[in-house]
Amino acid sequence: MTSAPTKEGRLGFRYLLGAALLHVVFMGGFGLAMVALARESPPPQLAIQATLVDSSTLNRPPPRERPDLQRKQQEEERRKEEDRRKEEERVEQEKLREQDKLREQEKLREEEKLREETKLREQERLANEQRETEKRLEQERRVEQERREREAKAETERKRVAEIERKQKEREAEQRRQADAREQQARESDLKRQLEEEEGQSAVAQSGVLDRYRALIQQHIYRYWNRPASARAGIECEINITQGARGEVLSAKLGSCNGDTVVRQSIENAVLRASPLPLPEDARAFQRNLILQFKPQD
Predict the structure, then answer these.
(1) Domain ranges of the chain
(2) Amino acid 146: pLDDT
(3) Cα–Cα distance, 200 to 282 (Å, whole number)
(4) Would you identify the CATH topology of the domain 208-294?
(5) pLDDT of amino acid 189
């Protein structure tokens, strides 16, 4: 009765089978290597080559080779050598042509690379020139715009100043016209007033009111005169009096006078103390500037 194989037996069988397969593979690879080596290596030349010779031919003289056959063999060898040499030259020429071709391709690649670099540099140069041109044109445009703005501003300012000057001249002309008109009106008013005063004074003079007004002022001044000790008889002095509208004395100056300095001063003081002077009975007889003769009674 056969017992079932154990676990250890199965493992040992597997190990033996794997070793056998590995051995077979190794031997197969070795055999293939030897075959390849045998194909590449020429057969070894033996130093001694045995030839089986018929004994009946030992005494027969060796046959002579034919000369034409020998020549043919030599020609064939030379031809083969020449073919081999030509083949080597052809291969060498092919290698040289391949090298020239590679060098030419490398040269073409270098030239293409140089052209590309030159093209890129030229494009970059043109781009830089374009940018510089655009920058210069933009700068010129800004300068031109600023110039136009300055000119427009200057023109606006010139017009504004011209308008101000024109209005100023118009105001000055209007002021001169108004001043001339006022002056003309004042002259006409003064002339009219002078005519009226002259007419009134003429009428007043003819009526005797002016003489009575002068006499009234003279009597009024005499009352304020303090006669000095040096005053002699027959004093006669001319008095220039400027008075206000209410008779207030504004100034008193003596003209021709036969009295001494003390007498002259006493008369001026009398006029100033007599202020305000009496007003005339007729307003037309009033005179702002009076010239009176001071002749006191002895």
Answers:
(1) 78-207, 208-294
(2) 93
(3) 10
(4) 3.30.1150
(5) 81
